[in-house]
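ARCHIVE CARD
Drawer: 12
Card no.: 0347
Subject: one protein chain, sequence and derived structure
Cross-reference: see card 0346
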Amino acid sequence: MFRWFRRLLPREERFFDMYARHAAAVQRGAQELGAMLQGGDAVMRHFPAVLAAEDDADVITREVVQAVRRTFVTPFDRGDIQSLISLMDDTVDQMKKAAKTIVLFETTEFEPELTRLGDAIIRCAGLMQEVVPLLAQISPNAGRINELCEQIRVVEGEADEIHDAGVTALFRRCRPHDALRFIAAREVLDRLEKVVDSFDDVANAIEGIVVEHV
């Protein structure tokens, strides 16, 4: 009964603007991380921009949490609003961790598998940036939302395969005398895969919201 009553009240729409701004920060971080994977001096040139994107995303995340506390009628469940922005923020947090790992290990040359994972991250960020605004009108956009979420899931599956193939290729390149190189490159590879995995978590959360509102 209360849910039906809530639908008659005017909704606070600023959450969708904040989601869109956050998704733009994530996309910026993905682009900058991908640029780091070009190697050479591009690593340190683009590293600060990844950190800046993560900082911007954190600010917006706090705005969402504060807005939830102050708002009587939210577009959908308060828990879902906070969970979604938290999962979105995790994507750029993972980017920051990946970027810091690259710098920590002083990596300036990247195997093909690493750059392919960078491309997968950029693709996922673009898909998330496209799907988030559609939540403003869930029912008419449900089909497209599910399509975009499925595309993220497909990219995540491809990234898993790239990661596994990358581990094998690294092992073959580095044995038997370059264990340190293998350890460093494997750590970066794992970090990049976690970024893609975090986008899959976002897609799952969005699909759950759709199920509740259609």
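Annotation on reverse: Residues 181 and 209 are 43 Å apart (CA to CA). The first helix runs from residue 2 to 8.
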